[in-house]
Every structure is written in structure tokens, then in C-alpha cells.
Design brief:
Blueprint: E1 16-19, E2 24-30, E3 42-49, E4 55-60, E5 66-73, E6 81-87, E7 91-99, E8 102-113, E9 127-139, H1 143-149, E10 160-174, E11 184-196, H2 212-216, H3 225-235, E12 238-252, E13 260-272, E14 281-292, E15 301-309, E16 319-327, E17 338-348, E18 355-366, H4 367-370
Antiparallel strand pairs: 1-2, 2-3, 3-6, 4-5, 4-7, 7-8, 9-10, 9-18, 10-11, 11-12, 12-13, 13-14, 14-15, 15-16, 16-17, 17-18
Length: 372
Amino acid sequence: MKPQRCEMTMSSVAPILLFAHIVLAQCTIQSPLAASAVGSRDASVTVRAAPTISLVLTVTDQRGTVRSAQSHLHADQNTGLLTRWVRFFEGLNTIRVEDESDASQYCAVTVTRTANSKNYPDDRDDFDVSAYLGLAIDTFTASQFRDIVYNNPTESGAKHERLIGGYDFGYRLKGNPHDPWKSQLWIYGQTAHGVRSAEVNCSGAQSQPPVCGLKQNPLNPLNNPALQLMYLLRNASSMEGSLGLRYEFLPLQIGGRHPARLYVKGQLGFLAIPASGAGAFQVHHLGLGAVSTAGGFAGSFLEAGYGRNDVFVSNRYRRFKFSGLLTWHAGSFETLGIKPFVQLFVDSDLSRGAASVQTFLGLSFDLSKVFE
């Protein structure tokens, strides 16, 4: 008996029963929302199967990219049911549950997620925690910044590189992700541990540091990121930390493919460099920007701010800051919680004084998926 593939577009809150092969006798897809299921972000999937069967659950978007995958799943010994929460993405989603040892035995449904004013697309979890690895390229570096961060005075304008790694988090303190007209308040923070690339010796054939792969290609996810991050934490020549509040007050492009929100924020931070012989430098600012909340570039942002940076001797209390970050879906790697990023950060007094232009590129790792 061949399995029956069942397709539907979710448009109501009533559970929808789907019949497939006897091995996967019944699937139930149910929206947790009290309103129309169209536009829902999350849903629970319940599968009836023999507890001895190992199952795989995948969610594929309309481009055919597997956006999430859960394997080695088993139904409850007593009820014969397996229930899992899944995330919907914009457009057509295919949810498929199959026998891990025989892919021809499966149950599948298609769900269309559309945006509307009642179900605003905001794919961000209430609590996001991630680790990241990458390369920082400092261009047009001012002497004050160069001498402190790199401890290697050379002519101004020279390029310098650092290997970077750290953690960042964001927690939604207030707001409803499904209502675009309700403001959201977030608390967020980040740490950045840097190692000057000139101090990493990758010339030897043996006993190379684990970050040599990161130095050569910061966008390669197969470079053993756990060892690389541990190396950076242990050998960091600089450390940055920040903590702030972000108030998101106005939605942009409601119903569009790339919705966003305008925000204002206040951020406190520091930069510590033991080789400088000084204490932690204070780095603070207020900012105005926009952040993408859903779609292929969710998490990208553009921001302008004004604040303080004690690394600079001149105009340390009058710093204009501009930052833009681009991150995007990385095909099958996103199933593992891996996304590439590129960021440009400018710190200037908008006069003849010192300035710094930094470019960051690397990979972020969603820890909720890494330990799933």
C-alpha cells in the first residue's frame, strides 16, 4: 500500500486530519492562535506511529529549502503519539514526517503562511541566543584606535585584521509579534573577543591553531566552530561588551516580503585591552534604526547613532556612529541554525578628527538549534 500525500492550505483553527500509510496512520496540524490560522508563525504537529519507528520531521519553504529538521523522534510508548512545534515561513511550507529507515513511508501537508494586519510576520523568538565567529577588518584606522587595539603603531590608513568570536542575546520584554501596531521592548547584549590575526601562526605544517581555518575563510561552517570559539576566549587580546534596551515603535512594509520595524535604542558598552595598560574604555551611544523581522534577510538592520568612545583622544564625547548588518538564509545550513553575516561599522566625529571604519564578516550559530 503506497502512502497517501495529503495537501491543504490552513485557513481555520479546526484540526485537520490527514491519512497516510498505516505506519504513519494520522497527522494533525493545529494552529495555537485563537484567530485565523492564516499568517500563523508556529503550529503543533501530532503524528500517530509505532513507538519503535524512528521518525524525521522537516519543514521546507516554497523555494525547496529545508528550513528545519528534527530527527531520531519517537512516539510516546503509551499513546503512540508524537507532538512537535514547528515554525512556518512566509509563503508555502511543506511539513513532512517520514520513517527514518524508509523515506517512502511518510505523511506530508502544505501550509501557506500569508501576512496580514492581524498576523504580522515577525519570525523572531522571544528569546534569541547565538554564538558567532568571524573576521574584523579595520580600515582607515586612526592612530589612537590602532595603537590601543593592535599595539602595533604603523602609518595611519593601514589595514589590520582581528579574528573575533562571542555571544549575543535578545529578549522581548514587551510586545506581541502578531500585532504590528503594538510596540515592542527588547533587552539585548553582546560580547566580542578578538585575537590579532598577526599573532596566529598558520605557517607550520603541524600544531596549527584551530582558528587558521577561520583566518583563511570566515564563511566556512565546517571549520570546527566550537574549538575556534574556545581558542578565541582563551587567547583574546581584546574584549568588548555591551548591554542595551531597544524600543520598536513603527512597523514597515506590513504584508510585504521583507517587513521591518523602526526603533530607538540606548546602549552601554566597554572595550578592555590588557596590553594597553589602561582600564576598560567606555563606549556608549543612542541610536535610531530599522530591523528586518521576517523574510530572507530577517535580522538585518541599518542604524545611525550618537555617543561616546573613550578610545579616541579627540572628541571622545562627540562620536557619530553608523552601522549596517546584512544576514541571510543559507540554504540547508540554516537547518543547523547557521547564518552568514556582513557588517559595516563607522565611528567618526564628522570632522578632521580621528575615525574608524570596520568591516565584519562571519557566521552566527543559533544555540537553540545547536542544542535541539
